Every structure is written in structure tokens, then in C-alpha cells.
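Input protein
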Amino acid sequence: MKRFVILGSLCTAMVAGGCGRTNEKNGSVSADRMQHRIEQNVVTVDTLQRRDFVRELISNGRLEAARRSVLSFPVTGTIQTISAGNGASIRSGGLIARLDTTEYALEVRRARLALDKARLELYDVLVGLGYQLDDTVKIPAEVLRLARIRSGYADAEASLQSAERNLSHCSLRAPFSGKVADVVQRPYEKTKDDFCTLLDDSRLWVRFSVLESEFGLVRPGLEVAVSPFSDLNREVKGRITTVNPSVDENGQVQVDAEVVNDGTLADGMNVRVAVRQRISGQLVVPKNAVVIRDNEEVLFRYREGKAVWTYVNTSLANSREYVVEANTDRGADLAAGDLVITSGNLNLADGSEVTLDAER
């Protein structure tokens, strides 16, 4: 809107009067002069134009990392080192913590010895069946399978694989790149339950609800602005990803959106969510321009130094503005190009003379 500042004055009549008191010595009457008082209705105006209106739906939500995984050691033991504590960033495959491997390394050694012993037993079985050890390619597959079982070689081989896997599980590694959280254990403690949570918070999900009556106003792809309650003036933009087509028992619809973390948001943070949609061709005024008179919505237009009382209806609203239209039931008219008073209108009446705020 093009902004104007209007100066006009409404001056009260100067009233002078005197009151006297008699001086007992000379009987003279002294008059007190009253001070002049000037009252002004100082206002500012905007030129009413048709333009885009940004419709907002406000809700509350909670942030959740796009990827999260609760990690624990598959085997028990004593924690030897913690390489990545709470808040540490780690790449996929990076080492988070390691257990003492002494016992598990010994199991691997024992399993290898048992496998070597079983291999000798396998050779004895094959020789007993009339096969040469240097010509195992000619041994039928079924005969070789049975010989591996009879000699205990198959069991020994599986035991070695299990021991090597247990040894590798002594190292807890990140399945994807992210940040480590919820570490409560310390080195030299025995492992118990979950060790940590790995969060990929480069992208965050936010789930929020809208009223059943607002269901038609949300759809995938609409822009959202997420603001942490600690700083509602800061916004991080995102987009709606899904809208649940079912209304719950409270008359609300679940909506999910995704935002790109600018480094200031965190998993689990409570946020305000504003869903925004642009609607073109609307008559838009600041909220301050609309006041209540006779239980009706009214704004004042400026005409030739006076405020003209105009009944309106507000159809849409956001945190700063209204979409207005003339209340034709009250005989009002309103059009683009009208000068609308946007401040100094709280005490105005129809036909009040107004003045320009020279500083605006």
C-alpha cells in the first residue's frame, strides 16, 4: 500500500473565564487566566489496493529428526572407550564406543583351533571313504557335505563365524551420519540396555494438527514457517509432506511437514507452525485499521480532512492483516484507491476532523 500521512486539526474553542477573590484590604478582585487547550485527532492512512493476502493457520508442533536410531551393543561386556559423546557429530561407519575385547578375542582363537582340529577329522573321514585329499574337486558334493558334518567341521566353522561376529560387535558404529545423544554410561561400566541415540537432524519432521473445518485449507506442498517458542520472531521455512485423510475423535486432522535445519533447531523442540497460502486480488488492511462500533466492524476512510465511518466485514485474517469488504447490508461502500485511516482511530466518530501526523 502507498502510505500517506494526513494532518488536520480539531481545535476546541478557547474558553476564558475568571474567578476572583476579594482582597480584604483594598477589595480588588484578581482574575486567573485559564490555559488554552487544543485537542487534535492525529492519524495516518494507507491507500487501499487489491493485492495478495497471505492466509495463515497457526498450530503447535514438536520437532523430530528425520532419521533416528537407538543403538546398543549386541553383546555384553565392559565399556573400554567412548569415542563420540553427547552432541558429537559422526559420519556413517564411525566408531562411537568399544568394549573390552579380551574375552571375545580369546573365543575367536579357541574357535580357530577347533576348526583346525575338525579339518583333520574331515581328512580322516574322506580318506576312509577312499578319496585322495589332493583331489577334493572330484568328491561328490553330497559326500563332502556328510563328511563335514560327521567330522564336526561344519560345527567348528559356524562357531568361528559366531566368535568373529561377537568380536566385531564389541565396536559400536554409526549406521548413518548424524549426532550422538542420550549417552549415560561411562568407561569401565558394564553394558546395559540402550547405549545411545543417533540423530540425523539435518532435516526435521514436525507433526501438528488443524481443525476439521480447516481440512480443505491444507495440502502437500504448502509452505510452513516453524518458530521455536524461545524466539518466535525467527522462522525456518518448510513444506507440508502429508495430510492424514481421517479426522480424529477431537475433530482434528494430523499434518506432517519437513523443514531443513538451519543449525538452530533440535530434535524434540516445541515449535509454533504457521501454514501460509497466498490468495490474490484481496482488499487488505492492517488489523489496527478495523475497530468495533455498535458491535459492528468499522474502519474510517479519509475524505477532505474528515473521518468517514464505514461498516465492513472481515473474511480472512492473519497475525497482521484483515481481508475486508464493504458491509452492503449497512449501506457501506469500499473500493481500491480509498484512503483508510490506520492509526489514531480509536476515539474517532463519523465526521471527526483529523490532522496529519507530520512525523509519519
